[in-house]
Specification:
Blueprint (H helix, E strand, L loop, with lengths): L2 H53 L3 H25 L6 H33 L4 H30 L6 H32 L2 H36 L17 E3 L15 E3 L5 H32 L3 H24 L4 H29 L13 H34 L6 H57 L4 H23 L6 H6 L3 H4 L4 E7 L4 E7 L3 E6 L2 E5 L2 H18 L4 E5 L5 H4 L9 E6 L3 H4 L18 E5 L2 H7 L4 E6 L15 H9 L1 E12 L5 H14 L4 E7 L2 E10 L5 E2 H8 L5 H8 L6 H5 L2 E4 L19 H8 L6 H9 L9 E2 L2 H11 L5
Parallel strand pairs: 7-8, 7-10, 8-9, 10-11, 14-16
Antiparallel strand pairs: 1-2, 3-4, 4-5, 5-6, 11-13, 12-13, 12-15
Helix pairs in contact: 1-2, 1-3, 1-4, 1-5, 1-6, 2-4, 2-11, 3-4, 3-6, 4-11, 5-8, 5-10, 7-8, 7-9, 7-10, 7-11, 8-10, 9-10, 9-11, 9-12, 10-11, 11-12, 19-20, 20-24
C-alpha cells in the first residue's frame, strides 16, 4: 500500500474516533477525576490525623508519614503502565482502583486500633523506633496510595498522545487538584469540625463508590458505541493502535543496504527511542516537585505564624497552594499541544519561578505580617478566614500557578505520537512526586533547621535557576535559527543575574513575627531579642521588655514568661501536685517551656527523677538557659532527663510509672495540641500514674471560647471524675486554670500540709511559693475554683474531645481571637461550693480557708 495514501486515511480514522470519544465522554472523565481528588484529600487529612496519634507528630514522624504517602503515589504511577496492559479498558481499570481505595480507606479506619496495639508492643526509641514508624506507615499507607497514584496513568489511557490528547491529560491533572481543593476545605471546615474521622472516611468512601460506578457506566456506554463503530469499519486503525488498544510501533522506511525495506513499498517497524532532551525534562519536573514541596513546608511555617497555627489556617494555606496548582495546570494544558512550544514554555515557567519565589518570601515575612489588621475586632471568625484566604493568595498564587503549569508542559515536551499514555503520564508524575518527596523531607528535617527559612528559600531559588538552565540548554545547543539561540542565551544570563540579586535580598524571618504572630501590627517588634531560632518542629524566640520581663515565644504566641501571672501559673502546675502527693519521687513534665514548672520540683527533698518531654530540641537546650534563675537550672540537674519526642507518643510507648504527670502544652487552638487534651490521652496518663499519683493540666481561658473551655474540662473530668479546678486570676478576673486529678478522690489535710511546708527541708519549697505570691499554704489552696461533681450542670452540653474527632482544636480555633476569660470564669464559679471532703482541717483553718476562697462564704 502506498504510504502517501495510507497516512491521510489513518488521520481520517483518528479524527473520526476522537470525535466520537472526546466531546461526549471526556468532560465526564474530568468530573470523575474531580471526585477522585476530593476523596484523596479527605483520606490524606484523616490518615495523617489517625497515624499522628500513633507515631507522634514530630518533624521526623511527619517526614516519614509524608514520604510514605507520596512514595506510594510514585510507585502507583510507575507500576500501572508496566503491570496492566493497554488492552484493559481504561475506565474499568480506573473504577477498580477507586473501589480498591475505598476498601483500604475502610480497613485503615477499622484497623487503626489494632495497629496501635501492635506498635506499642514493639516500639522503641532512637533508630529502632524510627524504623518501626516507617514500617507502620508503609503497612498502612502504601496499599491505598499505590492505587491513588495509579489513577492518573489509568485514566490517561483513554486519550492518545496527540496534541489534543496531551491537553486532556493536563486537564485531568488539573481536575484532580480541583477536587483536592474541595476535599481540603470540606474536611477542614465541615466534616472534621462538625463530625469526626469516621464520618469523613465514610464520605470519602461514598465518593469513591460513586466515581467507580459512574466509570463503569461510562465504560459500558463506550463499549456499545465501539461495537457499532466496529460494524461500520472492522479494519479501522489509528496511528499505530489496533482495536484492542495495544501499542504498535511507528512505521519507518528502511534504506539500509541489503535491506528488504529498501523498496518504498516495504516498511519495517522499530521502537522509537527516548530522546536525550526528554531526560532533561524529567529532571526539570523532579526539581519542580522538589521546590514546590519545599516551598509548601517553608511558607506554611511562615504564614501560620501570621495567621495563627489553627487547623483552619493550615486548611486555607493548603487550599491556596492547590488552587494555584489547579489554575496553572489548566493554563499549562492549553499551551502543551506542541512539543517544541511546550519545551519553550516549560523553560519560561522555570525562569519566572525565580522572581515569584522571591515575591512570596518577601510577602510572607516583610509585607503581609505588617498589614494593619486587628483580629480582636472581628465579629466572626469567618470574616477572618476570608481575609486570610485573600492574603495567602496574594503571596502564593504566582509561584504555585507556575508549578501547576509545569506538569502538563512537561507532558507535552516529552510526548511522542503512538506512545503509551499511561507510561507517559506515569513517568512524568513519578519524577515530579519523587522530587516532591525529597523536597518535603529535606526541607522540613534538614534545610530549615540548618539554614532557616531565609537560607531555605535561597535554595529554592537556586533550584529554580538549575531548572531554567536545563530547560534552555537544548535551545543553546540546537541547530535552530540564530535568533532562537540568542534569545535562549539572553534568558540564561538574565536568570543567573536576576537570581543572584533576588537570593541575596530574601529577608530573614522577623523576630516580631515569631514573637507576636497575628498581633504584630498592633504590638510592634520587640525592643530586645535575646534569641531567635528556627528548629525542626517550631520557631522560637526569647525577647525582653521593661521592667525586666522576659518572654518565651513559640509559633507567634507567648508560651512562658517571667510576668507575675505567668510565673504563678507555672509554679502552680508543679507545687499543687507535689504538695498533694506528699512525697513525689518520679515526675514527668509534658512540655518544657521555660523550664519553670519542671524547676519547681527540684526543690523537693525526696525527688529522684524528672523526665521532661518536648518536641523541639531548641527549647530545653537553648531557651531554658535564658530562664536559669527561675527554673533552678533544671536542665543541668543530674536528676533530669530530657526526651525529644512527641509527648503523646512518649506516654503511649513508655512502660514507666510516675508519681506526678504535669502538662503545660501549647495553646489548644494550635494544630496538633488537641491530641494532649483527648479522653484517650488522659486515660493513658492515668495508667502511668503510680498509686496515689497526681496529674495536672493547664487550661487557658483567654484566646478561647466557652465551648472550648467546657470541652477541655469535661474531657478531663470524664477520666478523673473527682478532679478539681484551681484558678490563676489576674486582678480577680479569670486568666487560666489548672485541672488536678487522681485515680480516686482528692483529700488534702490542710494543717498537716502547713506543718510539712514549715519543716527545714522544705525551706526551698516555701521560698519558691513566696516568689510567686503564695505566702502560706492557705493562700495556695485559696485558688480552688470547683470540682467535677459541682460542675456537672455547667458541663452538661460540653463536647468531649476524642481521638476520633479532636473536637477541641476546631472549637478552640473558632475562639482564638476572643478574650472572654473573665466571663468564662465568672460563669464557671457560679457552681462552686466549699468541699468539706476535699479540705480536711480544724475549725479555725476551715473558716480561714473558706473566706480566702470566697469572702461571701461565712
Amino acid at each position: 500500500m502506498d504510504l502517501a495514501l495510507e497516512e491521510p486515511r489513518a488521520r481520517r480514522m483518528s479524527s473520526r474516533e476522537n470525535s466520537a470519544r472526546s466531546p461526549g465522554l471526556l468532560p465526564w472523565l474530568l468530573l470523575l477525576f474531580v471526585g477522585s481528588g476530593c476523596a484523596a484529600l479527605i483520606y490524606e487529612i484523616v490518615w495523617f490525623q489517625l497515624l499522628e496519634l500513633v507515631i507522634g507528630s514530630t518533624a521526623i514522624s511527619m517526614g516519614v508519614l509524608l514520604g510514605t504517602f507520596m512514595g506510594g503515589m510514585c510507585l502507583g504511577s510507575l507500576m500501572l503502565p508496566r503491570w496492566v496492559r493497554r488492552g484493559r479498558h481504561p475506565l474499568r481499570v480506573y473504577a477498580c482502583l477507586e473501589l480498591g481505595t475505598g476498601i483500604f480507606g475502610l480497613l485503615l479506619l477499622w484497623g487503626m486500633p489494632y495497629v496501635s496495639h501492635v506498635y506499642v508492643a514493639h516500639v522503641g526509641h532512637g533508630m529502632p523506633g524510627l524504623l518501626l514508624r516507617g514500617l507502620v506507615c508503609a503497612a498502612c499507607l502504601l496499599p491505598p496510595t499505590i492505587l491513588m497514584g495509579a489513577t492518573l496513568p489509568a485514566i490517561s489511557r483513554w486519550v492518545r498522545t496527540t496534541p489534543q490528547g496531551i491537553a486532556w491529560m493536563g486537564f485531568f491533572y488539573g481536575g484532580n487538584i480541583a477536587g483536592a481543593i474541595l476535599g481540603c476545605l470540606l474536611a477542614g471546615f465541615y466534616l472534621l469540625r462538625v463530625w469526626d474521622t469516621v464520618v469523613a472516611t465514610y464520605v470519602a468512601v461514598a465518593v469513591n463508590a460513586i466515581v467507580a460506578i459512574l466509570g463503569l457506566f461510562l465504560a459500558h456506554i463506550w463499549t456499545h458505541w465501539q461495537l457499532e463503530d466496529d460494524l461500520s469499519d472492522s479494519n479501522a486503525i489509528e496511528d499505530g493502535w489496533d482495536r484492542e488498544g495495544e501499542a504498535r510501533a511507528e512505521p519507518h522506511l528502511s534504506n539500509e543496504p541489503g535491506s528488504a525495506g529498501a523498496s518504498p513499498s516495504r516498511r519495517t517497524f522499530t521502537t522509537p527511542q527516548l530522546p536525550d532532551r526528554a531526560r532533561a525534562v524529567y529532571l526539570i519536573i523532579a526539581l519542580s516537585g522538589f521546590t514546590a514541596l519545599g516551598a509548601e513546608v517553608v511558607w506554611t511555617r511562615l504564614l501560620s505564624l501570621m495567621l495563627g497555627g489553627t487547623v483552619y489556617s493550615f486548611s486555607i494555606i493548603l487550599a491556596v497552594f492547590l488552587i494555584g496548582l489547579a489554575v496553572g495546570s489548566s493554563f499549562g494544558a492549553a499551551m502543551a499541544k506542541s512539543p517544541s512550544g511546550a519545551r519553550l514554555r516549560l523553560a519560561g515557567a522555570q525562569f519566572l519561578l525565580i522572581p515569584t519565589i522571591a515575591w512570596a518570601a518577601y510577602m510572607s515575612t516583610r509585607s503581609l505580617p505588617y498589614w494593619p489588621i486587628d483580629y480582636s475586632i472581628a465579629q466572626s471568625p469567618w470574616f477572618v478566614f476570608q481575609l486570610d484566604l485573600l492574603r495567602c493568595m496574594w503571596a502564593l498564587l504566582p509561584a504555585t500557578v507556575l508549578w501547576g503549569a509545569s506538569f502538563p508542559l512537561a507532558l507535552g515536551a516529552v510526548a511522542r505520537r503512538g506512545q503509551d499514555p499511561g507510561r507517559l503520564v506515569g513517568g512524568v508524575y513519578a519524577a515530579n512526586t519523587l522530587g516532591a518527596i525529597l523536597g518535603g523531607v529535606l526541607f522540613s528535617i534538614v534545610l530549615v533547621p540548618a539554614l532557616g527559612s531565609q537560607g531555605s528559600q535561597r535554595v529554592m531559588i537556586a533550584m529554580a535557576v538549575v531548572s531554567a538552565l536545563l530547560a534552555f540548554a537544548p535551545s543553546l545547543r540546537s541547530r535552530a535559527r540564530h535568533r532562537i539561540r540568542l534569545a535562549a542565551a539572553v534568558a540564561v544570563v538574565a536568570a543567573l543575574s536576576v537570581s543572584g540579586g533576588l537570593a541575596l535580598r530574601v529577608p530573614p524571618i522577623s523576630a516580631g513575627l515569631v514573637a507576636w504572630g497575628r498581633y504584630l501590627p498592633t504590638t510592634g517588634d520587640p525592643t530586645h531579642v535575646a534569641f531567635l531560632g528556627e528548629g525542626m518542629n517550631s520557631t522560637v524566640a526569647v525577647t525582653g521588655q521593661d521592667p525586666g520581663i522576659r518572654y518565651f515565644h513559640v509559633a507567634g504566641k507567648v508560651e512562658a514568661s517571667t510576668d507575675p501571672a505567668d510565673m504563678r501559673l507555672q509554679r502552680m502546675l508543679g507545687h499543687l501536685p507535689a504538695l498533694v502527693h506528699r512525697n513525689p519521687k518520679k515526675v514527668l513534665v509534658v512540655g518544657c517551656g521555660a523550664g519553670i514548672t519542671a524547676g519547681s520540683f527540684v526543690v523537693y527533698p525526696g525527688l529522684e527523677r524528672v523526665v521532661i518531654c518536648d518536641i523541639e530540641p531548641l527549647i530545653p537546650k537553648v531557651v531554658s538557659t535564658h530562664f536559669r534563675n527561675e527554673n533552678n537550672n533544671v536542665i543541668n540537674d543530674p536528676r533530669t532527663q530530657v526526651v525529644f519526642d512527641d509527648a503523646r507518643h512518649y506516654v503511649l510507648s513508655t512502660d514507666e510509672q510516675f508519681d506526678i504527670i504535669t502538662s503545660d502544652p501549647i495553646h489548644p487552638w494550635v494544630k496538633g495540641a488537641a491530641t494532649l487534651y483527648t479522653k484517650e490521652y488522659f486515660e493513658m496518663v492515668r495508667r502511668h500514674l503510680s498509686p496515689g499519683g497526681v496529674v495536672t493540666q493547664w487550661v487557658p481561658l483567654y484566646e478561647s471560647s466557652l465551648e472550648a473551655v467546657q470541652s477541655e474540662i469535661a474531657t478531663f473530668f470524664d477520666v478523673f471524675p473527682e478532679g478539681t479546678v484551681w484558678a490563676n486570676n489576674v486582678e480577680g478576673r479569670g486568666y487560666d486554670v489548672v485541672l488536678m486529678g487522681q485515680a480516686g478522690p482528692t483529700s488534702i489535710d490542710v494543717d498537716a500540709l502547713a506543718e510539712r511546708v514549715n519543716r527545714p527541708d522544705y525551706e526551698l519549697v516555701k521560698k519558691s511559693l513566696r516568689q510567686v505570691g503564695f505566702s502560706s499554704v492557705v493562700s495556695l489552696l485559696s485558688t480552688y475554683a470547683g470540682r467535677g461533681s459541682d460542675l456537672k450542670p455547667w458541663l452538661a452540653h460540653a463536647q468531649l474531645n476524642r481521638d476520633r474527632n479532636l473536637r477541641l482544636q476546631y472549637l478552640a480555633g473558632m475562639g482564638a481571637s476572643h478574650y472572654f476569660e473573665g466571663l468564662i470564669y465568672d460563669d464557671m464559679i457560679r457552681y462552686r461550693t466549699y468541699p468539706d471532703d476535699v479540705f480536711i482541717a480544724s475549725d479555725m483553718t476551715r473558716m480561714i480557708l473558706r473566706q480566702a476562697i470566697d469572702p461571701r462564704w461565712k
